[in-house]
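Marked as duplicate of an earlier ticket. Keeping the data here for the record.
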Amino acid sequence: MTAAKVFFYIVLLAITIAAPFLFPDFRTQLATLWLMIVVSLTWDMTGGQMGYNSLGNIFFYGTGMYVAAVISIGLVYDVGEYTSAAGGGINDFTPVQYFMGVGLGMIGAGIFCALCALVLGFILFGLRGPYFAIGTLGVAIAAGELVSNWEWVGGGQGITLPVYPADLDEGKLFFYFLFAGTGVILFIFLRWLYNTRFGAAINAIRDDEEKAEAMGLHTMRYKLVTWAMAGFFVGIVGAISAFQLISFEPLESAYQTINLGIFMVVCVLLGGKGTLWGPVIGAIVFHVFKEVTWNYLLGWQWVALGALIVVTVVYFQDGLMGWLAHRKPEWFGIRVEKTDATEGANR
């Protein structure tokens, strides 16, 4: 890595740390931005890098929320008794119990979601193209319906978790750094992963899976591990969201296929599939666009979102990163030999 790139990443890290202090009124929005970055990067692991477009990654988010809640509650109370009254009157947690629940909930949610990805992958990766996308969407919808009818975890009324045991602004800062820390770790991990043999293998699956198998690549193994890693990180941010939201229910908050489940795909398409920075840039642009339209175009926000998707598909089919690579290839280290015709056209 060159000195210029090291300096660039140090500046980005400094901005990440300073942002919630420079903009204290927007700590929740900044935390949500990091959530969008994480789910976009994880979706691109399978959709962009491996060529398997999933519409069901929201399954890991919702499952992470519920696993973290069950672990946190189970450390102190009987889960069924707690959820039967939606936490009514027995949501008294000490600070130690609260933070222990957050920590163990995040770890447990990540591991459980990774295991779910491995189990489901054996079935779903037998499908390809649109059939895989529809299959994953079906899993997410089914999970939401099952949880909404499972009284032990609160059923349709959901779960109410304890409030952060300190000042509210301090809590917003706490959750921001949990999301941001997860995002930074994920970005560093993927930057390393995509430059290894593993990264080349999943790209080979995307380009031509039959040929990759013929060359002796164990494609199922790579697909399962990739989806498990994605599920692990999505499960973690789902766990963080559970404690940040405090109260959540299955269909509108946890397994929200229409909202976050679609947003993560739009972010990647907007920024550029199959790139490291594409999902990050797409998440930033989309989140700013969403916040502006949801605040100033209330009632028309979905129309604006639809227009953004249409513009992206029609004019930016390779995403913003692809568009920039065509316009400014030198920014990406691509040398373009200028022909006489090209030079004459530029005069």
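See parent ticket for discussion. The two ends are 37 Å apart (CA to CA).
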